Amino acid sequence: MKNYCLILLCFSVFAACKNNRKSGANDTLVKHTAPKDQSDEIIKKFKPIIQGVWVKSDYVEKVIKTKSPLAASDLATWITVFYINTDQVTGDSIRFMVGYGNHDSGDVTIKFQPGKTPGTILFNGQDLSYSIENGDTSLLVPQYDEAKKQYFKTKFRRVLKRQPGNDLGYGLYNYINKSLVAGNYKLTDSLGSTSKISFSEDGKVRGFLNCKTYFINVDLNSDIDDNLDELSFDTDTRHNLSYSFKIIADTLNLYETHENADSTELVLGKLKYKLVRQK
Predict the structure, then answer these.
(1) Residue 173 in contact with residue 163, Cβ under 8 Å?
(2) What is the pLDDT of the chain when averaged over all its residues?
(3) What is the pLDDT of residue 223?
């Protein structure tokens, strides 16, 4: 499989690989500026609402339902994740990085000024709104539909209030790790030997050979061999290991892989490890 050290680095430091995405020629900027007192009130109201790590709701919901980033990759489109640290508000606005398609990045601006509809503020010049259901807050972010030449709302859920640093990949990986594999397991290898293994939400692994970290690949739209779900270990070392995975009920299966005859995609090999979740 490909060298995920580079891919992980690219995704986890989005800010360093800015792709100069614009807000779009179709964005219409609101020209008025709110008085300072009004802006201060809007900031006070919206800071606790927008603070945190936000992930594209339909995408992560499908990852969880199917237990497969590959199966959900058709929804890993447009903005998939962003972190708003409201400590970085400057004047009446905040500028921050967003991740596009789990692969690229760009910057956007929120202005703490009234939008065109009540209860909204400006996200790249268009209305940003929110909803609260059962105590959970969602952001409704304006996305432009090129085909219909109009805006619609894309829903994002908050998965963390704060995170260490501004690493864009941190919150998304943390949430997917937590939802799919984090926990304690009994491991059985292909020779029948058993051992205990544990995965943490922040990408640490204990009990698996001498490995220290693990990585679930979510960037599944860039290479010809992105046709299988992949779980890698110690991706930033020369001793990295990589397996395809399938989750069935409480069992995580890790398979060896090899390329097909014409090297256009990966094929499952033998079952290498069977991990049964322990309660």
Answers:
(1) no
(2) 90
(3) 73
Residue 99: predicted pLDDT? 97
Tokens 């807050």 sit on residue: 137
Rounded to 5 degrees, φ, ψ at 54 are -120, 135
- Token digits of residue 29: 């900027």
Q: What pLDDT, on the 0 to 100 scale, is given for residue 32?
A: 53
CB atoms within 10 A of CB 36: 10
Structure-model confidence comparison of residues 27 and 249, the more confident one: 249
pLDDT of res. 13: 42
Radius of gyration of the chain (CA): 21
- What residue type is assigned to position 207 of the chain? G
Distance CA 132, CA 138 (A): 6
Element (H, E) at 168: helix 168-180
Q: Which two structure tokens, joined as six digits, stand for 259?
A: 């390329």
Please tell me the distance from the alpha carbon of residue 204 to that of residue 220, in angstroms, as a whole number.
Answer: 22
User: What pLDDT score was predicted for residue 3?
Assistant: 45
Give the predicted TM-score (pTM) of the model. Answer: 0.88
How far apart CA 213 and CA 175 sit, in angstroms, is 16
Report the alpha-carbon distance of residue 11 to residue 103 in Å, rounded.
Answer: 6
Q: Where are the alpha helices (DSSP H) in 2-115?
A: 4-12, 36-50, 57-66
Q: Which spans in the chain are helix H?
A: 4-12, 36-50, 57-66, 168-180
Give the Cα-Cα-Cα angle 14, 60, 81 (nearest 5 degrees): 25
* Residue-level pLDDT at 225: 76
Residues forming a β-bridge with 110: 94, 123
Phi/psi at 40 (nearest 5 deg)? -60, -40
Helix (H) or strand (E) holding 173: helix 168-180
Residue of 33, 32, 45, 26 whose CA lies nearest to 130: 45
Beta strand 150-160 with 136-145: parallel, antiparallel or unpaired? Answer: antiparallel
DSSP character at residue 204? B
